[in-house]
Amino acid sequence: MSTKEQPVKKLPPQEQSHQPGVESKMKPQPVSEPIQEKSAGRVKNKVALITGGDSGIGKAVALSLAKEGADIIIVYLEEEEDAQKTANEIIETGRSVMLCPGDITDESFCKDVVKRVIKNFKKIDILINNAAVQYPVENFEEITKEQLVKTFSVNVFSAFYFTLAALPHMKKGSVIINTTSVTAYRGSHHLVDYSATKGALVSFTRSLSSALAKKGIRVNAVAPGPIWTPLIPSSFDKKQVGKFGQDTPMGRPGQPNEVASCFLFLASEESSYITGQVLHPNGGEIING
Question: How far is CA 244 from CA 11, 13, 58, 253, 254, in A?
Fold first, then answer.
């Protein structure tokens, strides 16, 4: 979101029937363009693997890193139109991009993606575990075993799979960044399982940062508040979408590029003395985390 654009305070009611959602169907379109106007080469010639990089926060992060000199690998489920659009925008920055569609709950797929990255790029400098699903329910008792397994498999297990596969190829100076959520800190009565997965990622971040500190690999996380991404209209009904983000102190939902700047900072040497920490782009909610 450039300084000339006015932030969207109220979203028009809308919904989608299938997760993780399609960005091209959203009105208004999420703002993904990098906030930084000029490139400083902060991640020049780095290789970044991003799950859920086809749209939403992942797309904004991909564009921001590409503008700063990184080659990008986008892992996504099946949203071909969104993925190709993002790839084209990355190519316009002059950087290389690889698209990897598939199921991140399948450990063999995650391993195969890493093998393809090493074959084509020879290294992995930045790993961003970002992909997620959420299935709201009004009553806790409505959470089924199938939903619980699905949510943890996508949100948590995939982060372990990719990290385990990528680590042998990551050297001193590499970084891992996990996308957690404000719900990990304040909870959410209709997203209990989702909140639990995001809490797990906070602990994963803190523990892994300690385990990898001596190797010179930093591990941090970002905990967004209400951000306008495809996951929102594909999770909530029209009425809820129309009110989305209005309960924050800033009175509006955030845009993906307002979160991407946190990832860029953590991926660059500007954060060289930061590990095991979480940044909170959440519109002003104080969560003391």
Answer: 7, 9, 20, 6, 10
